[in-house]
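Key result, reporting period 2: structure in, sequence out.
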């Protein structure tokens, strides 16, 4: 992401779940370039998390890596306690950790189902609850932001597009949407803003098979009216906006960043 604007989120403290790769890493960079201190949460690939901390520090930002499995209550509570002890509080939570365990429905195991629900949905619950408790305790700090806190839930176009072969994943993202809206409704009066981002096909490790060969990419592009695969920086820019006071009146909404994937591209000629 090229837009460096350290004044935008100056002094704010962010936690990005699953920040060691893909969209999460780009989001962490984007927040850091906007002046926030960033916790790089990871559960695998510690070297990648430490490398990102180093990169952010070298470019003048502040970051720290914290290991925690977002689906584990004790891990999550320890992580937030460590962040709050070190930096005093939290202003921005990005619920980005997410996985796929794909299988044809008839073959899907309970463990594939549970693993996806645990990371994609339980993880968002546990992290949001910890962040919201701190936002509510601390309240608005006008020098930092108009809001007491901002939560950004990484969803997917599959919160609305059904996805054969990925029933667990689509169900988890449908859950993320209703989770996000319900928490937003409940906490708005405490000046806590909760929003979602629904990325389309973004070039990251999670969907490598969908873009790594020219044939795969050509077939993927048929689903994207804007005719390019997304870049993690596209998502980072949306997160920075939702975390900033520029979106102060926005809560309970999902921002689709998908090159038009949700526009039913099949109907351009059909119907
Ligand atoms: C999935 C990707 C997929 C994209 C569009 C994302 O949420 O994680 O694997 O390419 O949706 O279908």
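The corresponding designed sequence is given below.
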């Amino acid at each position: 992401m090229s837009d460096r604007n350290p004044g935008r989120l100056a002094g704010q403290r962010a936690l990005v779940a699953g920040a060691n790769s893909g969209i999460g890493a780009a989001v962490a960079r984007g927040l850091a370039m906007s002046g926030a201190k960033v916790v790089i949460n990871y559960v695998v690939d510690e070297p990648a998390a430490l490398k990102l901390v180093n990169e952010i520090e070298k470019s003048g930002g502040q970051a720290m890596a914290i290991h925690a499995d977002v689906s584990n209550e004790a891990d999550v509570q320890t992580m937030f306690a460590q962040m709050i002890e070190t930096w005093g509080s939290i202003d921005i939570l990005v619920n980005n950790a997410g996985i796929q365990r794909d299988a044809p429905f008839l073959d899907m195991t309970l463990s594939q189902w549970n693993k996806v629900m645990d990371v994609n949905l339980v993880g968002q619950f546990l992290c949001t609850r910890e962040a919201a408790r701190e936002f509510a305790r601390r309240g608005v700090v006008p020098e930092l932001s108009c809001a007491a806190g901002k939560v950004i839930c990484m969803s997917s176009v599959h919160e609305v597009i059904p996805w054969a072969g990925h029933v667990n994943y689509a169900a988890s993202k449908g859950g993320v949407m209703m989770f996000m809206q319900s928490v937003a409704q409940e906490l708005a009066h405490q000046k806590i803003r909760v929003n979602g981002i629904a990325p389309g096909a973004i070039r990251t490790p999670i969907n490598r098979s969908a873009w790594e060969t020219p044939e795969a990419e050509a077939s993927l592009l048929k689903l994207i009216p804007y005719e390019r695969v997304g870049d993690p920086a596209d998502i980072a820019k949306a997160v920075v906006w939702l975390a900033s006071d520029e979106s102060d009146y926005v809560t309970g909404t999902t921002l689709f960043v998908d090159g038009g994937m949700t526009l039913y591209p099949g109907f351009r000629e059909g119907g």
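The chain is about 40% helix and 15% strand. Strands lie at 13-16, 37-42, 63-67, 92-95, 149-154, 192-199, 254-257. This case is discussed further under Risks and Mitigation.
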